[in-house]
Amino acid sequence: MMTGNEKIRIRDLHAFYGESHILHGIDLHVMQGELVTLLGRNGSGRSTTLRSIMNMVGRRTGSININGTETLELPAHRVAHLGVGFCPEERGIFASLNVEENLMLPPTVRSDGMSVEEIYEIFPNLLERRFSQGTRLSGGEQQMLAIARILRSGANILLLDEITEGLAPVIVKKLGEVLVELKRRGLTILLVEQNFRFAAPIADRHYVVEHGHIVEEVAKHELEAKTPLLNTLLGV
Amino acid sequence: MASLFDINVFGLFGQLLIGLINGSFYALLSLGLAIIFGLLKIINFAQGALYMLGAFMAWMVLQYFGINYWAALFIVPLAVGLIGVIMERFLLRRISNEDHLYSLLLTFGIALILQGVFTHIFGSSGLSYKIPAELKGGFKLPFMYLPTYRAWIIVVSLLVCGLTWYMIEKTKLGAYLRAGTENPKLMQAFGINVPLIVTLTFGFGVGLAGLGGVLAAPIYSVSPYMGADLLIVVFAIVVIGGMGSIGGAILTGLAMGILEGLTKYFYPEASTTIIFVVMVIVLLLKPSGLFGKEA
After folding, report:
1. ipTM for the whole complex
2. Closest CA to A66 of A51, A49, A83
3. Residue A1 placed within a domain
4. In chain B, what are the domain boundaries?
5. d(Cα A126, Cα A114) in Å, to the nearest integer?
6. CB contact under 8 A, B186 and A88
7. Three state DSSP letters for B185-204
8. A143 lies in some domain
9. Domain count, chain A
């Protein structure tokens, strides 16, 4: 059922890269202001789910509804304008642009995005290094920049792919605080995450993806009871 | 005083001027190629033929419609750019997922067709186009005579190259282009219509060749093969400057024109090969080109 504050609703999503069939009927939804994670092993189809939402894979079938709009037939550049901000796993910082150019790059998709001042307040490192080449930043700074630029665009549905991967604990902690703050502001977040300990305390719900299917859904209050099951599924 | 170390100053400056003018054309054409290669990864072999088309269009609109040089200077690059847009949209886009060799062959085929058609209609002997009255005459400088039209070519070419460089390196639109070169998929995900940018960029790069053609019409003979001869040199220049480097293409174009002029003065026998010698040396020492980024 489509309700008023459902931001993402995916039904029976199949996705293909060339001949390979990666997603085999994903069903999920994310409500306004929710932080939902996609857990699972590497290669289970979590990143492909995000990339499918952005229309960055080959062929897709099924239904992806964003903010009430069916997007399966939309060209890739139209999806962002529904208020979706994507932060790819490889971060996608542009080497040919400096930090500020990277920050200003994504077009405004909604009017109430964060101002540059606000962003520099949250991420003071970026202010200090704003004229450095984007890829000269440390991994943590690049990750902050990758998140900051979609916040500036005004996106209020964030798709974040493995944002803590390979980062020092102090930076992971900082990113956790940022996500909590974004959630407090009412943003909707779909997070692909390997680090369950990072995701558990901040997420409202978790989906476990395996072989291109959703095999388990765990709400926050079920977390304790389902921990042994999750451990088995995730192989931790 | 005219002769210093047995150098004929007038002859030297004369060759330098010719070199600078050739360099202006090299810069315009290699800039177009660099822009197109940078964003589309297409090696546009039709660039020379489109330069020729620009020169012929200038001649034709004057001959058939009485449209003068000044109007042609705006209309022709736009028309050639539009042809580029059509080429990209209906031909090149269809093979954009194939190996780059296919687009190279396609553009090479287009070049051959254009040259064949114009040879068939106009013959290969060449047509003449009069220098506009406003740009006739010249200046007497202490060391040489500078024809106004030649000075005009240098000024226009430098201005257009400079503006293009500024647009690409310093503006938001340029940031889209540079970022689109690096990661077009992510740019789409940010909400930028990359296919449209690609089409317009191709049109712009090709339009530069059209502008070169109009500028060239009054001083070179307007002939079907005027572009083919030039293009080989321009490719060498793009290789020397570094594939895809905008500033590199402009500076190398001018520098190679001047180098060619100097060679014509000091050792004329080598003047047609000097650029290729430089290309070989650059390829051996710095394969990515003088201004290219190391791969």
Report:
1. 0.87
2. A83
3. no
4. 25-96+131-236
5. 15
6. yes
7. HHHHHCCCCHHHHHHHHHHH
8. yes
9. 1
The model's confidence at residue A236, banded by pLDDT at 50, 70 and 90, is: low
CATH number at residue A38: 3.40.50.300
Residue B185 near chain A (CB below 8 Å): yes
Residue of B nearest to A57 (CA): B185
Instruction: Please return the burial class of B130, using the count of CB atoms within 10 Å of its CB with bins 0-12, 13-18 and 19+.
Output: exposed
Q: What DSSP assignment string belongs to B201-219?
A: HHHHHHHHHHHHHHHHTTT
Nearest by CB: B175 against A54, A81, A105: A105
Distance CA A141, CA A203 (A): 23
Has residue A30 been placed in a domain?
Answer: yes
| pLDDT tens-digit map of B198-256 | 999 999 999 999 999 999 999 988 999 999 989 999 999 998 988 768 888 999 999 99
What is the rounded CA–CA span in Å between residue A195 and residue A179? 14
Domain that residue A133 falls in: 6-234
Burial of B80 (0-12, 13-18, 19+ CB in 10 A): buried
Q: Are A56 and B185 inside 8 Å of each other by CB? A: yes
Residues 61-80 of A with CB under 8 A from B: 75-80
The structure tokens listed for B102 are 């296919």
Residues 6 or more apart in contact with residue B63 via CB below 8 angstroms: none
